């Protein structure tokens, strides 16, 4: 089987679902954020503070290019769809699965996730987080070959639906 790329907003479950998909399919799991953190040798928050978002996006494009001929399960960072270049690359990499989630679901998750600091949402109000999310929706839809509604579904159910539909 060819690999599977997961896209979606922060807190959509890309990492959780990616790990489970990897277990079910036997394909390796790769997390682009982890790859970038390995390369930069600091946290994403520190990198944003030092070099800014644009430099981070450049790193993201470079990782994406390295995995064009992937046969792994890939969990991307939520902002990968921001660059037109990345969206074009993603389209060449199908199946790309958009894990669709509502702000009512992902905002509380983000507030309770203390494992990672996300510079674009840390210390933001729910309304400000929505303002980051909403302009991205068409980009997620455009980049995806499959859209899965994840609200009210367990990771197991989501994985089952992905494997039935790709
Ligand atoms: C970002 C999402 C993060 C990480 C960075 C920027 C974004 O990844 O790449 O903080 O712009 O949506 P997750 O979606 O895995 O949290």
From TrEMBL:
Transmembrane segments: none annotated. Catalyzes the specific phosphorylation of the 3-hydroxyl group of shikimic acid using ATP as a cosubstrate. Its main location: cytoplasm. Belongs to the shikimate kinase family. ATP binds at residues 11-16, 118. Keywords: Amino-acid biosynthesis, Aromatic amino acid biosynthesis, ATP-binding, Cytoplasm, Kinase, Magnesium, Metal-binding, Nucleotide-binding, Transferase. It catalyses: shikimate + ATP = 3-phosphoshikimate + ADP + H(+). GO terms for biological process: amino acid biosynthetic process; aromatic amino acid family biosynthetic process; chorismate biosynthetic process. PANTHER family: SHIKIMATE KINASE, SHIKIMATE KINASE 1, CHLOROPLASTIC. The keyword Nucleotide-binding applies. This is Shikimate kinase. Binds 1 Mg(2+) ion per subunit. Pfam families: SKI. Mg(2+) binds at residue 15. Pathway: Metabolic intermediate biosynthesis; chorismate biosynthesis; chorismate from D-erythrose 4-phosphate and phosphoenolpyruvate: step 5/7. It is found in: Cytoplasm. It comes from Enterococcus ureasiticus. The keyword ATP-binding applies. Substrate binds at residues 33, 57, 78, 136. Its EC number is 2.7.1.71. One of its GO terms (cellular component) is cytosol. PROSITE patterns: SHIKIMATE_KINASE.
